[in-house]
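Bit of a strange request maybe. I'm writing a small parser for structure token strings and I need a real example to test against, not something I typed by hand. Could someone generate the tokens for this chain?
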Amino acid sequence: MEQNRLFLFLALCFVSYMLYDAWVRDHAPKAPVVSTTSNSTIPDSGSSTMPSGTGEMPLPAPGKANGNTASAVVGSPASKQSGERISVHTDVYQIEIDTLGGDLRKVDLLKHPVSIVDKEQPFKLLDDSQARFFIAQTGWYLPQEPAMVPGTKTVYQIARKEYRLQEGDDALRVDLQWKNVDGMEFTKSYIFKRGSYEIDMEHTVNNNSAKNLQASLYMRLQRNAPAESSGFMMMPVSVGPVYYSPDQKYKKFTFSDIDTADAGGAGVKDVIKREITGGWAGMIEQFFVAAWMPSEKDSYRYFTSKMDDTSNHYLIGMMKAETVAANQQHKTSARLYAGPKVQKHLADVAPGLELSVDYGWLTFISKPLFWVMDKINTFVGNWGWSIILLTILIKLVFYKLSEASYRSMAKMKSVTPRMMALKERYGDDKQKMNQALMDMYKKEKINPVGGCLPILIQIPVFIALYYVLLESVELRQAPWVLWIHDLSIMDPYFVLPIIMGVTMVIQQRLNPTPLDPMQAKIMMVLPLIFTVMFAVFPAGLVLYWVVNNTLSIAQQWYITKHVLAEEKHTAGHHSHKKE
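Reply from user aminoacidic:
Good idea to test on real output. This should exercise your parser:
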């Protein structure tokens, strides 16, 4: 039957897509992994030359040392040791700042545990360990006179080693200071705010000398490419550099793109090294993002680069030429967002930052789905019940379309004995049998492919919801009931996948039996295939499918019973008229 062939085709396409999506995420080309020397080492940045006086920013190179610029910006992973550590405690952060370079080396998110099992251990967004290297850096760059400005090798002076946001205080300021031989004073200030994942950054230069200072201010994120996906088949972790510009909007790259660009590959290099006014640059992963956000009025030269040919460290950041006149003070400010991708807050932080919640090509479906689910959750206070209510709403929206489809399937089932008779009559003559079937469909007003419309509707919604659960930190570690403590990961006891498989079997019993024995066997195996595949899906996604199947069964059973009753009544009426 055409309906069953189409159903099998759609099922195959769906399974193939999900497997392909998982394969691409798990096996996309990654940068080669090399061992780092110690937990306290940091590769310095890579840059070639500093253009003079034009306002054009230097672009990072793939780490080729060239003369005296190498000591300032280019180096091996072992070229920089750790200094003293400053501990900073707020209501949302536990942070370590290194006096060497003034880098943010560790950022623990206190309100986001590593897992539901280890709730006392906060998630480390930034970390300078060997396994997960991800830090935020900012400083000054002057290749002609590197000793005149504080850069990656500068040791800052500090007032104390521990800062804590006190009760009643709304902000906490941490100052790091350095003075060059000419008496120029540089202050790097981090300002942490209560309840916020935005960190204000201020650079203050007091030029107490008789000459002007011309140097470049840089802000960048540096991290290693993960050796492999830390997720499993259907739950891969997406990691990589991103940036936003008012003209090109949101752009995302892989670490392989950076390798290609640094090697001179066409089509990538030009779009990741450019001048931008009012944008931001960051690194994303599954539920979190870190991004530098300069002033919307300032123009910065954005860049992405690999540290050098042998390291596994990558950069994304920006640079801006600054001039500080003699005996003058100069201030530059920016912000760093380092935290969860909470969608209702990101858009208020910076334009386009909410796009770091990457729903892929089905964003136009995923975003409305999440919006509706979020509104429901404000009333019910549980994301599991929100998914259930969202599923009911989706079924109500498409009720009439589903009704027409199930009515067509019910009519198809009512004429199954006649189709079997046609098969016996025409035997192997498929052309005559198909013609007879089409004549019967026309006479009985049956759409042979009408039963597949619910599947066509469900597949894009299902995939869109898959991306919602994969990317929305709001559902991370969100419990439902009983054994489901995290809707964003798979059911630990596989209860929901098994229930889903049972609902698929029940649905098949309500559908007409395929005439082709091979199709019938494949249809019998499909519930088992889907059960195994769904076993590694997020529990929230399987919950959606279980509820959707259950509602479909109820709707289809009612319509089938109603249609069969109508058929019986019509047949009885015709029989009575003949008498």
